[in-house]
Fold BTB domain-containing protein.
Amino acid sequence: TLQVKGESFYVSRHHLALQSPYFRALFFGCGVESNRKQVEIKGVDLQHFKVLMEYSKTHRLALNRDNVLGILETADFLQLERPRLLCCKFLERELHLSNCLGMMAYAWQLGCTQLYNSARQVALTHFSAVLAQEDFLCLSKDRVAGLLASDDLAIFKDDLALEAILRWVLSDPDREEHFLNNVVVTGGYFRDVLWFSVDWVKIYDCENERWLDGPAMQKSRHSHCSIGLDSTLYVLGGSMDEGLVADVERLILGSEEGWEGLSPMARAVERAATAALGMCIYVACGLDENGDVYAGIQRYMVKEDQWDVVSYSPFPYDLVATELNGALYLFGGQSLRFDVETDEWTVLNEECLDGKFFCGCTNISGQIYLVSERKSNKAFPNMVLLDPYIDTCIQTDDAIPCPMPLRGC
């Protein structure tokens, strides 16, 4: 029996010990508590403890904006890793321009690495707005220097970095002698080569503004997925004249070896959406060999050269996809966020995207761009900018020179 603030909880010691090193040490360690029938736990909130004990039995965690912080801190204290992860993912979905700096500090204090990185990424990609906040002035010297030195820092003029430094320093004159001499600001980068692949390969050399012939793929195909990861281009699935193929090929930029075959997909599909997250490539949905919609989210683990199916989309129709801040975003009739670690799907309430389908989707500087809307098999030269961290969804007509083909970017 566990007792918290006078209330008793009848629990399975073995069951809790499997879920938490804290309970494993409490019940089966060398302490005096291991021999007691009733153990009192101090330093935790009763209501939050109740929620976690209910989770230990049902594996369902009732989270909301009012209780998530308390439950996270209690789960952290009790070393319940799965509830801790679910709380962190909930907070990642709540990230916004207005709370990213505070969330950075909170996540750092609790050692929630992924939540910290996600909050930091919002701050980096919205830096011009972040530096105007009062929370920016409360950052430590190392935290400010780390933001300014990041390759992901989105600034559109060099003066902005200097403005950030001066604003931070002038808020506390004692900082000047300790900080100004140590700040290093590094620039970003842009891709030198843009790949566009169908059954042949063309390489656009941005520096010289010309198209070059690339090495031919091992198999000609159409309606396939193609995506770049680091300095490697991957081509996945699609159709040949004989039908669908699950074959996967890759081309390492600068290599003389040409295209190399890899492990085939778990399920052959065409017209699927694809996105890269970390060292994994995700292929979302698509059409199977019968022309039916396949709902699976296939994952290719690059280092292991292995495929698996990690989840199934609740709205698997005609999707485009991209990655933003550690989560997958899928668009096609509905707007979805998928947290891979916890297998959680969230429907985004964006009226400007409801019922709409697009030919291309990408992420630039922390914002999602959807291009060339499709209606009745006709594409339009418009574009939608989505930024979930500042509640922005803006459509621009005639934003691109011409309508794009399916899977345009």
Summary: The chain has three domains: 2-93, 111-182, 193-343. The first strand starts at residue 2 and ends at 4.
